[in-house]
Amino acid sequence: MVSWLGKNLCDAGFVINLKDRKDRFDRFSNNISMAGIEGVDRFEAIEIIDEPYHKCGCTQSHIEIAKKQIENSWDYVLYFEDDCVFDLFYNHTIDKSDIDYDRVVEKIIEGLNEHKPDILWLGTRPEDYAEPFSDVFVMPKKTIMSHCYLGSLNFAKFLVENLKYTNPDHFSHMWPIDFFISQIANPIDWKIKEFDKERVMSNHDLKVYLTSPMIFNQGSSFSNLTDNFVSYENWVRGCYVRYVDPKKLNIKMFLKS
After folding, report:
1. Angle of CA points 233, 8, 12, to nearest 5°
2. Torsion angle in degrees (nearest 10) through CA of 105, 106, 107, 111
3. Are strands 12-17 and 76-81 parallel, antiparallel or unpaired?
């Protein structure tokens, strides 16, 4: 069971972490503690040696967690990548110390129970304008980065059934997890089946939301995927400001008086 500031959040939570990246795990543990989230377990990241899939271990790790979710019939699971950092953020004019974090968490959990999204981003980089949905949720059209989200059981089943990135004959061949989820946000254009090797377009009913404010960012560190040091925090914040318009949101209720 995963709790958030003492409130029940979901059935289970996992952070994907390579066995030789204790540095990332330690930083993640500190950040998750600062965020007030408890009950997240370490999931040893899948390592794939075979070419050309040796960079696909992260995606496979998400899939393996989804399989655990299905096996245990968990309604919701919290998926983390170990470069997550706690970064409570609306825009550059509002300091996180001015945000009533307890109130934000309360409304997110209320919204989760009321609207039952299949994917709830707690941190990602939006790449297109997001439509306001509630005081704390917006509906993104396109995203990239998969460092933190809640996934429903329906999402887990959809992921396992439809992401076939090692199958060169499947439309999802070599799709990383963040691109896969981004495509889910466009249900009208979603490809989910193939008949006689013909790619068939079909709809789905999965609901994808993003929290406002953002809760987690992707922290700077050496990346095993790109084999270099990466730093995307400011890029993520800039995209958030551009595509999640705070003027359309009722954020005053979440600011301390």
Report:
1. 70
2. 100
3. parallel
Share of residues in the chain with pLDDT > 70 (%): 85
d(CA 143, CA 66): 20
Interatomic CA distance for residues 153 and 76, integer angstroms? 6
Q: Set out the domains of the chain in order of their start, with CATH numbers.
A: 2-254 (3.90.550)
Say what the pTM is: 0.91
How many Å apart are CA 181 and CA 165, to the nearest integer?
Answer: 13
- Torsion angles phi and psi, residue 150, rounded to 5: -95, 135
* Token reading at 77: 């699971």
Burial 128-143 (b: 16+ CB within 10 A, else e): eebebbbbbbbbbbbb
Q: Among 13, 4, 22, which Cα is nearest to 80's?
A: 13
Report the C-alpha gap between 129 and 242 in whole angstroms.
8
Provide the 8-state DSSP code for 123.
E
Amino acid at 11: D
**Local confidence band at 188 (pLDDT 50, 70, 90 cut-offs):** low
- Of 4, 41, 13, whose CA–CA distance to 151 is shortest? 13
CA distance 184 to 166: 19
> What pLDDT sits at residue 201?
46
Q: What is the mean pLDDT of the chain?
A: 87
Inter-residue contact 233 to 219 (CB < 8 Å)? yes
Count CB neighbours of 41 within 10 A: 10
